[in-house]
Structure formats: structure tokens, C-alpha cells
Amino acid sequence: MGKKFIKHVPNILSFIRIILIVPVIILYMQNTTPTFIWSIVLLVISCLTDFFDGKIARRFDAVSKLGKALDGAADKLMQLGLFLCLIFVYGTPVLIVFCVLVVKELLMGIEGLVYLIKTNRVTAAKMHGKVASFVIDVCMVALFLLRDILLTVPWVVWAICGLCIVMAVYASVAYNIMYYRMFKELREHPESVLGDETEDKTAEDYKEEEKEPEDVPV
To answer: Is 91 helix (H, G, I), strand (E, B) or coil?
Structure first.
């Protein structure tokens, strides 16, 4: 019973992260010192759930498509909540970053959905996406925590937002190249893509298998 429950813990942590979004937004926008501190406390708790859900899922072999979807949704919703807070405080520079990210996520979402429909596979996050997300998250947290200081130096706010835009464009280009290769592989070798149950392989993976079939374990 305990082992079965542990397998649900990562999804529970993702739900907790989603639930925390609303109080973080409300407390941050109150613009008082006590509510500001509490919003930071809840944000830290949210970050801890994000850290531990993946650790627990891998440790107890509880990785699932539902878990991946929940974790991704919780991350995006928390980012959205942070952006609402930051747009309220900083205005235009953060709004531009938000618009760029919305376009990026729409493009990736459409490509991922089409690939899911064609192959019944969910594409997991790749390293370039994780790096970009990490940098953007760090920038957003800095804007969140250093509000009173950064409001006195607008050029720093613009510089931070510029870095976020660069990382978003980098991730978008990398993912579009990846999807182009995956869809090309699907068109040229549909039997190898649809006949293999291993998730999230790229065109390079299949080329390597074709070159070295003897390395495939039996």
C-alpha cells in the first residue's frame, strides 16, 4: 500500500504546485511587506515540489505520461502566475517577454499535438528547452524577489527581459528543427517510427540503429 501511494506522490506534488499559484498571485499584488514575504515562502514551497516530484518519480519508477503532463502544466501555470504579477509591477518589458513566450508555446504545442496524433507519442522536454526554461525562470524569480531594487533601475529590467527573449527564441528554433527532423523521419520511414514503442526518438536515433543493427539488444 505504501509503495502504491509513493507512486502517486509526484502527481500530488504537481497538484499542490498548481493550487499554490492563486495565493502567490494574490499575496504578491497586495504590495505590503508581510504579504510579499508570504508570497516568497509559497513560491519556495512550489519550487521544492517541482524539484522533488521528478526525483521521486525517477527513484520509484513512477514516471508516467500523466505525470509528465501534470508537471508540464504546473510549470506553465506557475510561470503564467509569475508573469501576471510581474506585468502588474514592471509593465511593458515583461509584457513583451510574455507575448514572445506565448507565441513560442503555441507553436510548440501545435507541433507536439500533431506529432501526438500521428504517432501516439508525447514528446518529452529536451535539454535546450530545459536550459532556456531554467534561465527564464531564474530571471523571473530575480524580478519577483528584487522588486523594490529593480524598480529604481529600469535598464536592468530591460536587460533581464532581453535575455529572456533571446533564450525563448533559441529554444523555439531548436524545437522547430527537432520537429522538422521528426516529421521528416515520419514521412520517409513511417514503419520504423510507428512500429517502435520507444518514446521520443529523433531522426538521428533511427539513423544510428540503421547503421549498427547488431548493437540492438535481443
So the answer is: coil
Give long-range contacts, CB 8 A cutoff, 24+ apart: 132-140: 132/167, 132/168, 132/170, 132/171, 133/75, 133/171, 135/163, 135/164, 135/167, 136/79, 136/97, 136/101, 136/164, 136/167, 136/168, 137/79, 139/163, 139/164, 140/79, 140/82, 140/83, 140/86, 140/164
Query: In this structure, is the dihedral angle defined by the CA atoms of residues 153, 155, 157 and 163, taken in order, positive or negative?
Result: negative
Q: What is the mean pLDDT of the chain?
A: 80
The predicted model scores a pTM of 0.69
Burial label, 50 (beta-carbon count in 10 A; 0-12, 13-18, 19+)? middle
CA distance 63 to 151: 42
Question: Could you tell me the CA-to-CA distances from 7 to 58, 74, 160, 198 in Å, in that order?
Answer: 10, 18, 39, 22
Closest-CA residue to 69 (of 14, 120, 139, 144): 14
In this structure, are residues 13 and 46 in contact, taking their beta carbons and an 8 Å threshold?
no
pLDDT digits (tens, 9 = 90+) for 103-139: 988 888 888 888 888 877 777 667 878 888 889 888 9
Tens of pLDDT, residues 152-167: 999 999 999 999 999 9
Domain boundaries, the chain: 1-90, 91-209
Nearest of 122, 114, 109 to residue 200 by alpha carbon: 122
